[in-house]
């Protein structure tokens, strides 16, 4: 559900947009999302989001549920921080992730800096263990400046959707792939509180598409791997609804539906909301 965290200010066709006001209302929330694959609960993702003046911090944590854990040992954590503003609506400073699969782990970091006089953000990626030569060279250096990490992109999308529109385009580099996250408006829907979700109210509809730029392998016929280039050339994506679960709080993802993450239908529900004290 890290993809589900792709949660923007209406942008110009090239992705550039005028920066919104730099001061965002402070908040600190912890959100829990239950993920169902083919109607079976597969696990929970936790998203912690915090703003303080002009800055933001985002953390995600996900692991396999009891059923999936019997088959595979997997977990993922990531965190990002930065400032609001700039051409993309966010200016990340630091991103860190830790992914484990069985007895292996990958520790990755993205650092951002704007060299004096350049006006464009430079991006540095490091990983332990180091990536293979093919992976390290999958995205040419000239395609990395001016990009943001995936969590910072989600932060921009979530914040700017408060204007009532999803339409936007954000350039993302994750250390292995370079792609654009393109958001389009979809019909809104009313969601009722239930045993699956704690959210109740109107939710803004969005279509999230991933447009490959570099580093994507070509998928074979019938392959459903989300992070590959589809054989038919169409961008992969999913439908997302965002809403405001806490009065006066931020707009966040409340429901996700996808048919391309696995071989069957995937649904994510907002199942828990905790309001935390500011740090």
UniProtKB/TrEMBL annotation:
Residues 120-141 are annotated as: Disordered. Pfam families: DUF3108. This is DUF3108 domain-containing protein. It comes from Nitrospirillum iridis.
